[in-house]
Amino acid sequence: MDTxxxxxxxVDHSVDQFLWIKRHGKxxxxxxxxxxxxxxxxxxxAARPQVYRAADQRRYAGRSESPxxxxxxxAYKRGRRKTExxxxxxxxxxxxxxxxxxxxxxxxxxxxxxxxxLCPAVPPEGAYLHIDHCHATGxxxxxxxxxxxxxxxxxxxxxxxxxxxVDYLREFAVA
Length: 175
Hints:
This protein is an alpha+beta fold. Helix content is 47%, strand content 13%.
């Protein structure tokens, strides 16, 4: 088993006790073990509680009041999302969030010939396409692969911005 010495506590640990971090564009093992990093983060939070409290309040504003969020968070915290039963539970939560049943999802997938609405991507075995929806109205649109869903999300449902991006790509397209 590979080991590495923590530069903070000076103890040899197995390499799985160190986080992979980006440094100068390369992935490297951190110099501090997980225990030392956690302790340092706790000390930092304790030294400036008002800063972290305000940031946490902004980040989680309104979430705790939502029963749907509490239900999802409970499943997520239990770590069940990694088991088959947990995956079904989380999938069920996401379907209920958009007012869909498993049959509705399956019918949408059949209507799209089993692939993403924007590209030919087919979900791998055991994975699901994302449920795309209008953020203003909550109306479900179609099923998208993760890449297309993130791409649309990055444009924030702003059609003008998306069309400018298309023009930009066409301007620099290689013939």
